Amino acid sequence: MAGLNQTPGANRLHIGFFGKRNSGKSSLINAFVNQDVSIVSSQAGTTTDPVYKAMEIHGLGPCLLVDTAGFDDLGDLGKQRNDKTKKAREKIDIAVILFNDENIDQELTWYNYFNDRHIPVILVVSKIDQGINDNLNKSIFEHTKKEPLLISAVTKQGILELKEALINNLPADHEKESITGDLVKSGDSVLLVMPQDIQAPKGRLILPQVQVLRELLDKKCQVIAVTTDQLLNALANLNKDPDLVITDSQVFKYVDENISKQSKLTSFSVLMAGYKGDLRYYIDSVKKLEELSNESNILIAECCSHAPLSEDIGRVKIPRLLKKRYPQINIDVVSGTDFPDDLTNYDLIITCGGCMFNRRYIMSRIDRAKAQGIAMTNYGIFIAYVNDILKRVVY
Fold first, then answer.
1. For burial by CB atoms within 10 Å, which of 25, 284, 306, 344 has the most?
2. Does pLDDT of 382 surpass 60?
């Protein structure tokens, strides 16, 4: 289990290494971090599922290095590996593509995928200890207008240049610096309402609660945390109204009914919507709820894979709210990375806050929805809207 002082994987810079089988991806990663992170073999196809390695690299900060299967893998099993690699690329903040033969059509396809999405790409000619192919270097430049880095994992030539290239290509929108933004300032009092029900992890807080609490402490706010049943007692013991109340979305209505209208109100899920996704799109999309009917199709997308419990928000509570309006409405639920490529069958997508994925991956889902003309909102925005308090909520 990761320590509480470790950066969550979702907040790390995701650096993906892509190339054909036996192009030297695993060897390059090992040489780059000077550790045996990935299994290396002369046999093609050694790496199967993507391998994720958390690292702290000077100049880059907390990173997640992603070693992937060769995108030229063959057969039914090879197709499954390619599918895993394609899912992994949706999370990538910087892509490193390896070349080592003159047939570069597949590499260029992957280069165009990242380039079209404005994801920084570093091009590498690997295994130069076995000889330098001037024709290959020239061909890469002709197609991309980029000079590839010449690297050997054996001699370590080019490793320093790779690190410098990664630093120079840090994406500006990797992760927003603040979850709470300008909602609070030093000295503000903040009340956190955090129900610890059957779904709460025993002995721990959920990740958004931990991240928000840490940020508020860093901002020198005065923080009080209570469970829902202690909200009234906490308010009675305060000598002034809290400047901001952050609640679990599931108790939005109850909290709004019991706090002063002078206190600003938001939820952990709403804050995560702005931190990880496109808040404006979520807010515009939730209005689609008024255009639905009993024949409509809804997709509920949870980012984490967990065993659903009673009163699960995605599988029970949100469907219950939907069926109050449209008793016969069709609802599908997916979790983890099982997010459909084709979304055109759906009228509305409702996603969780996305704390377990990085912003790049959440944005890739939003971009897919936008491209297919599908409305997409998130749990917190949806719950605030159906309780008619969205205008009251700050973000």
1. 25
2. yes
